[in-house]
Amino acid sequence: MTKKVIYKRLRLLCCLSVLITLWNCKSKDITASEKYADNLTTLKILQEKEIYNIEIDVAYPFVKAATQQVANTLFLSRTGNTANRIDVRGDGYFINIVKDSVKGDLSFMGERRLSGGTYGMNRGIAFEGVPKNLEKSIDKKNNKLEIKFSINQNGEPSEKYDVRLLIFPNNKAEVEITSTFKTFMRYSGTLQLVDEFQ
Fold first, then answer.
1. Residues whose CB falls within 8 Å of the CB of residue 84, separated by 6 or more in sequence, listed in order
2. How far apart are CA 107 and CA 114, in angstroms?
3. Taking a C-beta distance cutoff of 8 angstroms, is the pair 60, 185 a contact?
4. Is the dihedral of CA 136, 102, 59, 90 positive or negative?
5. Residue 197 pLDDT class (50, 70, 90 cuts)
6. What is the pLDDT of residues 90-118, one digit of tens each?
7. How many angstroms separate the CA atoms of 31 and 29, rounded?
8. How many angstroms separate the CA atoms of 58 and 106, rounded?
9. Whole-model pTM?
């Protein structure tokens, strides 16, 4: 008689633990889908904006092994930076988009690929004006807003940049720039929210 009562209680306990486990799995799934829906809503709001101000925090230059070795040995040791990751926070680098006009001032720490263009004028990446092929789209799979455009370097019509901005729901941003004469550069930064009605 006692064994029957014990086995009944054990079965009841097992059933209860299985139900609790299934309930917890279901609630996590609901939470994940709610977060996805919230992120999608945030991205749609960001897509409808006409003003984007991105402050650049970190530059990721594309460097070759020899350049990396020299940079790490000579002038980047003990700074917390490497040749592949340089903290530029507070140096004032940015990309601004206002309606159909863009302006950007970014550091360039890579290598020049071709001898085209002029040396000494602007060693960084600087552009201002109306870009070509400005496109905004939401990547639902990867949860990000993607903005693409092409624009020329200030004062150098032969230097063209293909710019790709990736903005995430948490206002973090990544910038990828492919250039005609310079090596590929990538940046990360923060989207600064601006009241568009000022």
1. 60, 61, 63, 68
2. 19
3. yes
4. negative
5. very low
6. 899 999 999 889 999 998 887 777 655 55
7. 5
8. 10
9. 0.76
Half-sphere exposure of 77 (CA within 13 A, CB side): 5
* Token pair of 71 as six digits: 């940079």
Q: How many helices (H) and strands (E) does the chain have?
A: 2, 10
The first and second tokens of residue 184, run together, are 């590929």
Structure token pair of residue 113: 């690929």
Give the Cα separation of 185 and 63 in Å (integer): 10
| Residue 80, token pair as written in the block | 């917390």
Structure tokens at 152: 């020329």
Pairing status of strand 101-106 against strand 156-167: unpaired
Is 133 strand, coil or helix?
A: strand
Nearest of 89, 99, 87, 98 to residue 53 by alpha carbon: 98
Beta strand pairing status for 51-61 and 86-87?
Answer: antiparallel
**Nearest Cα to Cα of residue 176 among 194, 157, 150:** 150
pLDDT for residue 163: 96
Give the helix, strand, coil percentages of the chain, each rounded to 5.
Answer: 30, 40, 30
